[in-house]
């Protein structure tokens, strides 16, 4: 299939991430981790509101009662609808001078999950935590360098998770109580020019769409075999995350990064850091809301 990818927001973000569509508001939320800020982009008007954050913001979830749950470098907090911190509900499970939160999502039961990146990159020190609606916070997984690509399959049976620099996509079985079992490798991505799996989203048919960081493309992945079944080529090399949005959930929004790029690389890919949109022929699913 051929796709028309459009740069819809000339954000020039340092590190755009955490693409989330709000069904309730019909707007696209995203973060610039390093700004640090949460952003609200309204495709109907083109307005992008910026809510500055007090520390690096890796990811966030939309709260059922309005506002956000945000994973900042120093912990996990509830905020109001404009990103003002209300209260802390969790910690960064690792030394936050050496790690920050990265990708995250809300699961089908309304729990918020967020993973960390181990910045010294000397071992797989990244962790994945879950915050229940009650505020109870626990470490659920680890043994990754950069926690990424979190996703919960629409049938509720699997949690997908990637470790980007290690080029690996894992899946974990999810039991009836929402707890995860032993992980298995679903796919190890080839090293070379194709990129490595970053942020992701499931579509309504249960396929997993992942932004291929350093590969300039988004892949649609078969959830059982891990094979690529479709590909969208992008005008930037470092896409970071995808989210299905629009009234029919058939517009794929894509964030991207300029972090650590040389002047030559940015001259070759001047749209790096922008937000992109592309119409696709399968709908996503509404983003679950954090029930706390
Ligand atoms: O999600 C992220 O992934 C990238 C990829 S990698 O660690 O370089 O493989 C990372 O650069 C970025 O900082 C992070 O947010």
From TrEMBL:
The keyword Cell inner membrane does not apply. Residues 15-257 form the SMP-30/Gluconolactonase/LRE-like region domain. Its cofactor is Zn(2+). It comes from the Bacteria. PANTHER family: REGUCALCIN. One of its GO terms (molecular function) is gluconolactonase activity. Keywords: Metal-binding, Zinc. Belongs to the SMP-30/CGR1 family. One of its GO terms (biological process) is L-ascorbic acid biosynthetic process. Substrate binds at residues 100, 102. A divalent metal cation binds at residues 17, 148, 198. The active site is at residue 198. One of its GO terms (cellular component) is ribosome. Binds 1 divalent metal cation per subunit. InterPro entries: 6-blade_b-propeller_TolB-like, Ribosomal_uS2_CS, SGL, SMP-30. It holds the Pfam family SGL. It comes from Craterilacuibacter sinensis. This is SMP-30/gluconolactonase/LRE family protein.
